[in-house]
């Protein structure tokens, strides 16, 4: 890097990537957004700040590299392009912050990890919760043995998603897109964060997440227009046969359902709520504790950390190792059958300029399953 202000190329700016454009336009993060790559020819009409700041747009990374280069690539393109783009950027000597999920096979993830090592560059992943300093403080305590071994964990988290969400691109809700695997589902994508956070919290070192050894899955399709599952009730096993129960869904009435979680350890129970998780714990002797005093960092801490790492060379906390178990879990889950929800349980509702399929009482049903550490079928609940 020629000076201490990294030049950034942002790939995929029209969806979640817009947040990166607007974030960097609002404040000086000590880096320059040098260029954007996006296939949308109307991108600058939709995001005025791109013209205001004269940020060049290239239709592909290849076109960008033919004219220019950068120090850091931020990839916010769809998952099925991540591997090729990461490898191309590393080959050009860039550091990379890639949005989650990194990819859909552990082999590809390992290839990218090796390529980053060979290039002497970092590859960090956009799971923003992992960059929170309160989450890292909790992880440090878990690793130091303050709570003993984990015994069992249950979390539920869902986002309501309607026709507009699925219509915004050609891959939402799909198993494959133009012959490439995408496995898009609430577990793979929109509600991946909290499951990934659990594996990260229970990882054997600060930078790693814990391995998944197996899964029992009930997968359902509530919205008949969706190819993949949009409701999942999952019981994972990790080392020591500790179960992680995870419930997630899109065809729900509640705009943002949870997350609500309970983590039972040998010497403490920790409950948490909120997308930006707030933890409350109680030790076995009744002593309460929390992490409220730890400033979590900014909402875009992952970007701040990637810019800092580009200058210092010290890799950010969430790299390939932190994503591998979720990538493995996505594939294990996807091998299970998908059952359509019984039509009498599904309502169709037009609301707020959108069109939804809601599964009646789904939030209550799955929250009840979480309280019983059970999958719906084990409680005799027939969703399909
Ligand atoms: N961390 C988070 O909270 C969070 C939130 C939303 C999305 N994401 C992740 O961001 C990524 C993108 O998701 P999205 O919902 O914004 O997708 P999207 O399909 O809504 O938008 C993708 C953008 O990339 C562009 N694009 C598509 N193919 C491209 C290509 N080959 N080259 C360059 N640009 C291309 C599109 O034109 C569009 O502007 C996914 O990996 C997703 O999981 C992360």
Which SSEs are present, and which pair or pack?
Blueprint: E1 7-11, H1 17-26, E2 32-37, H2 43-46, H3 49-52, E3 57-58, H4 61-67, E4 72-75, H5 82-91, E5 95-98, H6 106-119, E6 123-125, H7 133-143, E7 150-159, H8 163-167, E8 176-177, E9 180-181, H9 192-201, E10 212-221, E11 231-238, E12 242-249, E13 256-265, E14 268-273, E15 278-283, E16 288-290, H10 301-312, H11 320-334, E17 338-340, E18 346-351, E19 354-359, H12 362-371
Parallel strand pairs: 1-2, 1-4, 2-3, 4-5, 5-6, 7-12, 10-17
Antiparallel strand pairs: 7-13, 8-9, 10-11, 11-12, 13-14, 14-15, 15-16, 18-19
The structure holds nicotinamide-adenine-dinucleotide.
- Main sheet? 9 strands, mixed
Label the structural class.
Answer: alpha/beta
- Overall helicity: 25-40%
What is bound: which ligands? Answer: nicotinamide-adenine-dinucleotide
Mean pLDDT metric: 97
- What is the C-alpha radius of gyration, as a whole number of Å? 21 Å
Ranges with pLDDT <50 over ≥5 residues? none
In short:
The protein is an alpha/beta fold and 384 residues long.
